[in-house]
Amino acid sequence: MQQRTIGDRQVSAIGLGGMPMSIEGRPGEERSIATVHAALDAGVTLIDTADAYHRDANEVGHNESLIAKALKEYGSGADDVLVATKGGHLRPGDGSWTKDGRPEYLKEAAKASAQRLGVEAIGLYQFHRPDPQVPYADSIGAIRDLLDEGVIRLAGISNASVAQIDEANEILGGRLASVQNQFSPRFRSSEGELEHCAKIGVAFLPWSPLGGIKSAPELGSRHEVFNEVANELGVSVYQVTLAWHLALAPVVVPIPGASRPESIRDSAGAAELKLTGDLVARLSAA
Ligand SMILES: NC(=O)c1ccc[n+]([C@@H]2O[C@H](COP(=O)([O-])OP(=O)(O)OC[C@H]3O[C@@H](n4cnc5c(N)ncnc54)[C@H](OP(=O)(O)O)[C@@H]3O)[C@@H](O)[C@H]2O)c1
């Protein structure tokens, strides 16, 4: 599969988002593990997760533990997979999302994530979402300490503005490896952050690249031009959408979520789908 770069790591151009396998509506464990294995069979070497991908408050880290189990069962073929997790966003268990960006909390959360993932150092650790109660510099200072102490190998941020990207990169001494923001045909508000990442050479991981778990089934009906192009090329609207993401900049690495093996198998095919400049312009203008 086509490769892209995150920090000093080469990863598949299409990653796998773990959220649909752990939040409300998730499938049974067997199907989730089959989904992760289908991703690996297709050449996917980037898996995105978070300690907050769980349903009830008593199962924090559900998705991290699931991914760790699936990788272990796959064996040595999974050795080169980069698992990217996150901390700083919490789910108290009533369906809501809260934030905790305190340095002492983030440091403990990262160590707990490493333990669940069964690794000495986390491949890529992302500060999930800025906490308005805590100065951004303090939260990122904790991420820098984790990097310096070897608890994490690469540092990323998520849900960040251009100013926060620059601030984080400065605090990290130029070692910011990735930015994960919402971006899809439907939600394009992070276009400025995507362009900024392309300019400074930092990986950009669009989250909910297909519009999100609830909207993904309507991708073709909501976005007529994406559907038209898919029909013209004889591929799924999901492949066209992900190939469009990839065409926007060489730093883009989409992480489509999946809870079925068929979904990630199809999505992985987008890495080999080359869109002409005209098609990319037509999709971007849609
Ligand atoms: N940093 C953040 O704040 C943040 C926020 C949200 C999400 N994320 C990350 O981003 C990842 C992706 O976002 P997301 O999961 O919310 O939404 P998404 O990737 O836009 O959509 C996921 C849904 O699309 C369906 N799908 C994927 N590929 C398909 C295909 N080829 N054909 C048909 N259906 C397909 C899947 O269906 P099935 O379930 O039926 O397979 C899945 O439920 C998450 O999993 C998570 O890792 C991060």
TrEMBL record:
The keyword Calcium does not apply. Keywords: Oxidoreductase. SUPFAM superfamilies: NAD(P)-linked oxidoreductase. Residues 14-284 form the NADP-dependent oxidoreductase domain. GO terms for molecular function: oxidoreductase activity. GO terms for cellular component: cytoplasm. The keyword Transcription does not apply. It comes from the Bacteria. It holds the Pfam family Aldo_ket_red. This is Predicted oxidoreductase. The lineage of its organism: Bacteria, Bacillati, Actinomycetota, Actinomycetes, Glycomycetales.
